[in-house]
Amino acid sequence: MTDRKLTTSWGAPVGDNQNSITAGHRGPTLIQDVYLLEKLAHFNRERVPERVVHAKGGGAHGFFEVTNDMSQYTKAKLFNGTGTKTDMFIRFSTVAGELGSADTLRDPRGFAVKFYTEEGNYDIVGNNTPVFFIRDAIKFPDFIHTQKRDPQTHLKNPTAVWDFWSHSPESLHQVSILMSDRGIPATWRHTHGFGSHTFKWVNAEGQAVWVKYHFKTEQGVKNLDVDLAAQLAGENPDYHTEDLFNAIEKGDFPSWKLCVQIMPEEDANTYRFDPFDVTKVWSQKDYPLIEVGRMTLNRNPENYFAEVEQATFSPGTLVPGIEPSPDKMLQGRLFAYADAARYRVGANHNTLPINRPKVEAANNFRDGAMRHDANGGKSVYYEPNSFGGPTETPENKIAPFAVSGVADSVAYDEHDHYTQAGDLYRLLSEDERTRLVANIVGAMKPVTLDEIKLRQIGHFYKADAEYGTRIAEGLGLEVPAAVVQK
């Protein structure tokens, strides 16, 4: 134990390593938070050449077809007009493992969809879970460090994992999902996908609503038994990659129904949970699922590197009618994902065939490594200009939104990290609860400090007394008296 001060790379002390600087409590995040930018930019450059996260994955081509016109909510053309079809590409992945790791590890699954629309590309970069471990991007590099290898032993470090989670109670909801049966999908085809974050839809009249994306698998949800998953990790570590390729190759095309939850803009100020907190879900009783369309995968890549490894995604790859929300985790990802692509694939990653939009890009970006097209030719290379170069279109400006408050490093107003995790536990059957507890106990046993175990047990207990008590018993410990008395 030391009392060393946390500093920036230039030696200045860090005053807040938990909350990014925002305009008021809801933000948006301010670019003047140079420590946040430094931290995310450095994090994106820590590994060469594979992805920092989501390194192991596979993908396929397909199409999306609208089954329910959404023009009353958004002017985004890919969601307008029943029968509208849009080509798309999807990449599935695990989060923490390296490029050669096993597909069947307990881990969230990345669910990243690229739509090649007539207005440019649109990316939904989500997971197979509706929530995430943290809710502020400033904590993301620290979180992922705990999922990677110890810098001394080069081994996975359960103590680091649970130490971070126990100090970050907002992770409890996602941890409960991860440790449940859903933590190891049977295949990529048998799992749901989620945009996870809240986004803003804006219609042609400028009216806005908040939206969450749900991709519902039409193959049914199936999960793997932990022992079978471990066996497959040794016998066929590429099990999920192989399954998706073979299914499409033989004509068994997987499909998902895309639904959304829609929240009126003004409800964000009164809903019982902060609708921009990615560790929370919106109740489907409050905001029911509305069908939008159907996604079908029907074509395998011809070359893995060119189409899967070089595919780049960013939640900031948006089209008119779709905008970000003040979700602090999303705000950080808007920068970090595109920056990671520029580092990993290059400044001109969007000119590669897998990433290139169907509409011709018209901008003043020039030069850079691996520029393989005409580099803008002899056209005008600045704006504004007097020579007919590309110009802005004011009708595609973002919908204005109000901000308030004092610029500061502030946490979310709401700190109920336990209600939704407890509700999830109580929704499970007794068999599912038993497996959940067993998975958590098995994962926590290697933790070297009882202090960490007891802190985490306290979180489980606050979510549900039975939940925490059963885990404590499995670890041969007592629920901390201070937690029970509260």
TrEMBL record:
Keywords: Heme, Hydrogen peroxide, Iron, Metal-binding, Oxidoreductase, Peroxidase. GO terms for biological process: hydrogen peroxide catabolic process; response to hydrogen peroxide. Coiled coil: none annotated. GO terms for molecular function: catalase activity; heme binding; metal ion binding. The active site is at H54, N127. Its cofactor is heme. Gene3D superfamilies: Catalase core domain (2.40.180.10). One of its GO terms (cellular component) is cytoplasm. Belongs to the catalase family. This is Catalase. It comes from Peribacillus psychrosaccharolyticus.
